[in-house]
Amino acid sequence: MRVCSSHWSTAGSWLVFPLIFLVLLISSAASGQTARSNSIDIKQNAAAAFEEGQTAQKRGELNLAVKLYTNAIAADSSLFQAYYQRATAFIALGREREAEADLKRVFELDQNFSRAHRAMGQLLLDRGMTEEAKRELARAIELEPTLAGVRTFYASALIKSGQPERAIEHLQLAIERGEDVALCHALLGVAQERLGKTDEAFAAYSRAIEIDATNAAAREGRARLFEKRGESAKAIEDYSAAYRAQPSPDVALKLAQLHARAGQPQAAIQLYRGLLRDKPEDFALRAELARLTYEIGQPEEAAREIAKIVAARPRDSKLLALAGDIYFKDKPETAAAFYRRAVEADSNDNHARVQLGASLVRSMQYQEALAVLNEAIARNAGDYAAHASLATALFKLKQYPEAAREFVWLIRTKPEIAASYYFLANSFEHLGDCAQALRSYQEFVRRADPAVNKTEVEEATMRVAQFQRLTKEGKCKSPSKSKGK
Asked: For residues 143 and 136, what is the distance between their CA atoms, to the nearest angstrom?
């Protein structure tokens, strides 16, 4: 009985092992199925969060989109598309550093995701990192040649790096594929303008504007060409449209300068005031505002602006000279004071020195002007303005031989300027050189515009008749001949 019982026990134990194995097998299968089920749930949760993020992003709810993409990444950190989409949302929010970090994570997960290379290229291009941007965009084109927008961005980078010919090739391909055609034509215009093909550039800009009248790049480009053609009104119209579409300090400054040159100071002043609200420490802008307000008869405001300039930069020779320029025409003594300070601040500023000399002449301080102007000429022998002021000062001081020498220099340098002949003739007349005076007066009458120099032409004509009569009578002799007799 014990044997049987023992045998039964042994047999029973053999039966138990298969049962345990079966239970373990079933348990293991159940665990695997649960793991797979959990994995599927995680993937589904990540995908759902990702899709919700895309929906939010399309609605413009960027912060919500970022949150949903973050949930997707938390559920599945291998979902590189979620990193990419979150990066694009970050870019739209101006959070570039976070966008760059996400794009780098995309590259860790999938080096061949062309859209991420395009986004990184665009990001680097906006930062001015042109060469790095070109590498990323070229990689995107290599991976997916038909990827929307990438050739346009690449062309922009090529233009910035001085490769307009290659840019044109990519832009033409982009236009053929129907990408952002207005932008493509605008960039095509920029590339052609860089190559000196102004007619083709003008046509490209105009085509871009036909497609999209608010395209700032095209408007600005065509405005530049209108300006070069001397069509200021059309240039102002295009610059104004560019500024309305995409306000920028550069366009505002260009527009202000054009308004000023076109004799529209109020429009220019308004733009300068706007620029100064954003850049109150830009004293070159402030000096230009002072000049314009002075010209339109607002000397008090001009004086206030100049006071701000001088108080802030008391040793800045360029700004002091600009202050002198403002008063040069109507208040030469005030101008001279500013120019003198400019020269004291920078003894190498010869332009300020020449202007100081000219201001002294205009304020009839002729003797003082001589030393200043002679030094200016010693520093730059070819400075026409310095010689012109020196000639005037010498003439006014009745130093006629020296004055005649300077007027001869002026005539040799710029023979087209009629006034030099008049003062040379007058100098010779004072020296008693009848023959030289006659020739110079004749040349003045031949070159001068009677509508502009009516009084001088009439006087010179009278002098010519007088000297011709003296010559005929044998009384018109040069000083040297008189001495010879």
From this structure: 11
CB 425 within 8 A of CB 463: yes
Extract the tokens encoding 6: 């023992």
The first and second tokens of residue 296, run together, are 């339109």
- What pLDDT does residue 439 have? 94
| DSSP track, 196-225 | T-HHHHHHHHHHHHHH-TT-HHHHHHHHHH
DSSP 8-state assignment for residue 292: H
At 480 the pLDDT is: 54
Cα-based angle 67, 70, 75 (whole degrees, multiple of 5): 130
Burial category of 12 from C-beta neighbours within 10 Å (exposed 0-12, middle 13-18, buried 19 and up):
exposed
DSSP code string of 447-470: HS-TTTSHHHHHHHHHHHHHHHHH
446 domain residue, yes or no = yes
Q: Contact, 407 vs 420, CB < 8 A?
A: yes
- The residue with tokens 């050189």 is 433
Outline where DSSP puts E strands in 361-451.
none
Is residue 463 in some structural domain? Answer: yes
Query: Six-digit token pair at 167?
Result: 């840019």
Q: Which residues of the chain have pLDDT under 70?
A: 1-43, 477-485
Give the CATH number, domain containing residue 482: 1.20.58
pLDDT of residue 46: 85
Residue type, 473: E
Question: Angle, to 10 degrees, between the axis of helix 181-194 and the axis of helix 164-176?
Answer: 160
Structure tokens at 154: 């690449």
pLDDT at residue 352, as a whole number = 96
pLDDT tens for residues 292-350?
A: 998 888 888 888 888 888 888 899 998 899 889 888 988 999 999 999 999 999 999 99
**What is the extent of the structural domain holding 432?**
407-485
pLDDT of residue 376: 98
Structural domain total, the chain: 1
In a domain, 280, yes or no: no
Question: What whole-number distance in Å separates Cα of residue 92 and Cα of residue 64?
Answer: 13
Task: Report the predicted TM-score, pTM, of the whole model to 2 decimal places.
Answer: 0.62
349's CB contacts (< 8 A; 6+ apart) are: 317, 318, 321, 342, 343
Identify the pLDDT of residue 138: 96
Residue 316, phi then psi, degrees to nearest 5: -90, 105
Work out the burial of residue 7: count CB atoms within 10 Å of its CB; fewer than 13 is exposed, 13-18 middle, 19 or more buried: exposed
Q: Which residues of 437-467 are buried (b: 16+ CB within 10 A; e: fewer)?
A: bbbbbbbbbebbeeeebeebbebbbebbebb
The span from the CA of 313 to the CA of 308, in Å, is 8
Helix (H) or strand (E) holding 287: helix 283-295
What is the rounded distance in angstroms from the CA atom of residue 320 to the CA atom of residue 313?
8
- Which DSSP letter does residue 365 get? -
Chain CA centroid to CA 207, Å = 24
In a domain, 423, yes or no: yes
